[in-house]
Amino acid sequence: MANLKDIRDRIKSVKSIQKVTKAMKMVAAAKMRRAQQNMEKARPYSRSLSEIIEHLLPETDRELLPLLEVREVNRIAYVVVTSDKGLAGSFNSSALRKAQNEIDEFGREKVDIFCIGKKARDYFKPRKYNIIESYIDFWSDLNFNNAVNIGNSITNHFISGKVDEIHVVFNEFVNVATQRALTEKFAPLEVESNKDKISDRLYEPSKDEIVKSLVPRHLNVQMWKYLLESYASEQAARMVAMENATSNSEDMIKDLQLEFNKARQATITTEMLEIVSGAEALKG
Amino acid sequence: MTNFKLEIVTPTEINEIENVSYVRCPGSDGSFGVMKDHTDAVIELGVGEIKITKAGKDSYYATSGGYAEISREKVQLLLETFESSKNINLDRAKSSIERSKDRISNKRNDDMNRAELSLIKALNRLKVSYR
């Protein structure tokens, strides 16, 4: 039986850990709500841009813009979206595992990696994967400019012909309890063509000019969407993980308390036995 | 009825303005005005000033570009940025002007187009803020 002081110390430390996990859960919940709102706000913009593209792209010559060019796939770039911080359940590991599987399947020497978030960099760097660039320490003040910067340098990598396709691995926010690691093709741009044509619509300066300026913007908005989804997923995953940790520590405290009571009772019993047997001995 | 509904959509917010009678936008080939029953169109916008007339009152906004999507039911402006003339941060615009001028004159940045564009954007915000 462990001694009383040890058990009391352990209860104390578990309780203080519980305070931390509880606080982290609350912070994650608040951040997740904000992230969800940002996702809602971003949706109409990206939907409207996609609608215009869906109308225009089927009529557009793919050679108009390098970003639309479909080439034979010899090299791929992978953009892996993770967080800077851990303690978010399987959030990072599931995205990293998915990315690694796909990269290894294609052949790691033919893949360039863009790491978003510390966790991706810390995972791929020691494993000697071919990292082109890492973006870290921006999650705490995430804004649209981050997406534009990341989007531009990734699309430049494609335009310069260093890779023939770009894939993005990120965590899709399904709901608070479910996040799913997902791969999407980022470039060359593919959209479902929209059949119901709007006739007699005026395009200024011209259809081609609009496609030229619209496609890069659309891709930046896509990147923004990936970042927002991933951020919301991260917070949701952390919230659930911390919720579990809090209830686990609750169980642990209960068990320790029981052990403590048993130990205390055992000490009392032993002491009483000693007194009684001492008295018996005196009676002679 | 000579009024229409204007929707201003950016990546981070949505503004709906009902009963707008006139909106002037900075098209990439010069500015143009939209009133009710404009023909359906998609028009590219450049850096410039947006003027919205509602109930006889004008309000001014700065934008760094986007698209105007005009249809029967409404006019939608898809903008990268959208700032009311009253909310423009003057200090930020001025420091941005200094920074881009510095970049252009010292030629240490090889990305001249970007420096120039940011100068144009900053000057535009400054201009609109004096409305």
Question: What is shown here, in short?
Answer:
Chain A has five helices and six strands, in the order αβαβαβαβββα. Chain A has helices at 4-56, 91-106, 118-124, 144-159, 207-283; strands spanning 76-81, 111-116, 131-135, 165-173, 179-187, 202-204. Chain B folds into two domains: 4-84, Sandwich (ATP Synthase, domain 1); 90-129, no CATH class.
Description:
The complex is a heterodimer of chains A (284) and B (131). The model of chain A has no long low-confidence stretch (mean pLDDT 91). Chain A has 284 residues and is α/β, with parallel strands linked by helices. Chain A is built from five helices and six strands. In chain A, strands 3-2-1-4-5 form a five-stranded mixed beta sheet, with helices on both faces. Chain A has two domains: 4-20 and 245-283; 23-193 and 202-241, Pyruvate Kinase, Chain: A, domain 1 (3-Layer(aba) Sandwich). Chain B is built from two helices and ten strands. The relative contact order of chain B is 0.18. Chain B is α+β, with helices and mostly antiparallel strands and 131 residues long. In chain B, helix 1 packs antiparallel against helix 2 (112-129). In chain B, strands 2-1-9-8-5 form a five-stranded mixed beta sheet, with no helix packed on it. In chain B, strands 4-3-6-7-10 form a five-stranded antiparallel beta sheet, covered by helices on one side. Helix content of chain B is 27%, strand content 44%. Chain B has helices spanning 90-106, 112-129, and strands at residues 4-9, 14-20, 22-27, 30-34, 41-45, 48-54, 57-63, 66-70, 74-79, 82-84.
Keywords:
heterodimer, A: alpha/beta, Pyruvate Kinase, Chain: A, domain 1, five-stranded mixed β-sheet, 13% strand, elongated, B: 131 residues, alpha+beta, ATP Synthase, domain 1, five-stranded antiparallel β-sheet
